[in-house]
Amino acid sequence: MIIKNGAVALPGREEPEALDIRIEGGKIVELGKNLSGDEEIVEARGLLVLPGGIDPHVHFDDPGFTDREDFGSGSRFAASGGITTVIDMPCTSIPPVTTVANLEEKLAAVEDKAVIDYGFYGGVCCQSMSEGYPENFRELSRIVFGFKTYFISVMELFSAVNHFQFRAILERAAELGVTVLLHAEDYSYVTAATEYFMGRGNGPVDYYNSRPEAAELLAVRTALELVEETGADLHLVHLSTGKAAALAAESTATCETCPQFLEFTLDDFIACGSPLKVTPPVKKPGNREELWKRLAAGGIDFAASDHAPCPAAGKETGSVWTDYAGIPGTGTLLPYLISEGYLKGRLSLKRLVEVTSQNAARRYGLYPNKGAIEAGTDGDLVLVDPGQSWKVVGADFLSQGHITPFEGREFSGRVMETIVRGKTVYRAGVGILVKGGHGRFLTRG
Ligand SMILES: [Zn+2]
What we know:
Strand content: 15-25%
Distance between the termini: 28 Å
Shape: globular
Number of strands: 18
Bound molecules: zinc ion
Largest sheet: 9 strands, mixed
Number of helices: 14
CATH class: Alpha Beta
Low-confidence stretches: none
């Protein structure tokens, strides 16, 4: 395959360069001017060529909760939004990924479905710490990209760990040289506040009050104290407050944020209701500006979607307390950052590449094979027309989830083609062009 005449975003460069890209055997083998040959030609004149997006935080729910999403629909939706690699969370499948045997069960269930490349996180929860720990942890650590933990969880099969257990996990992880990921909301605060505010109402403000800024900050401060004591490698997922991102930036921990926190505030949640119910909830005005600032300047390492859809009925239970927390996001992640970040001048081209691809690849040991357009790396590319705009219509999502807080929003910059290891998996106006199974299973190291 030769991608001709595109404006190519090379690593570390502020301006795109007019180059052709030759891909052979799934790898980029040559970058240059006027490349020719008898292989497939993809015309990219007028298009921006970015390294394929990496979404390092998705819940594809497979196997076990495939009424919400599965690896086929999830990965097709990701591909439609320019994502070429996802890393899937361990907690929203049955069984959860807490042992190698469970991981193998999951892999068997998903390997014929994925159209893009994928890896898994393992998980440590209260249950898994009482069965076969730490042997399971050690064995899994060779395969997974990190271990997800929660300070608070409403998942029956994947409970939270307390601070003492978390410290033990950090110590073990430090010995093994593996990353720990944390859902940072404070158990004590959220449990008591939930009980209190459930008795007062069932609207967005009540839900927000059960998990306000303080809930995240208490958890982050605690976690960072234990990281300092243990020297462990921590990643804070889906930060929703500017202050938590500031604390992370001053520490050895890394962090991510999501489009929902960059775009929406409590006022939007009040207006929009359940379609914007996410955990943690969106926060008061002021946070989003701070999150954008840090995403642009470097205090936030990368963006992720926290893709977690559900059937429509799950969003229409009549109460904010029982409505499903989560939105389909992996297909709008990169389009959002292109439109509201790069094309609006909040993110430079170099920074766009970093926060949508390069930094997650570096963080999880996939770089430079993923996350960079260079000779020798995987031919994972996304071709974007910066001159086209399009409207977000949830009903058109390739995900099983169709309820999005971005409904009706106009985004600038359209994903025209998504290429995974030299094969076009998605083309605008046509759809998905490969069968499930094209996606390759990735492991740590
Ligand atoms: Zn999540």
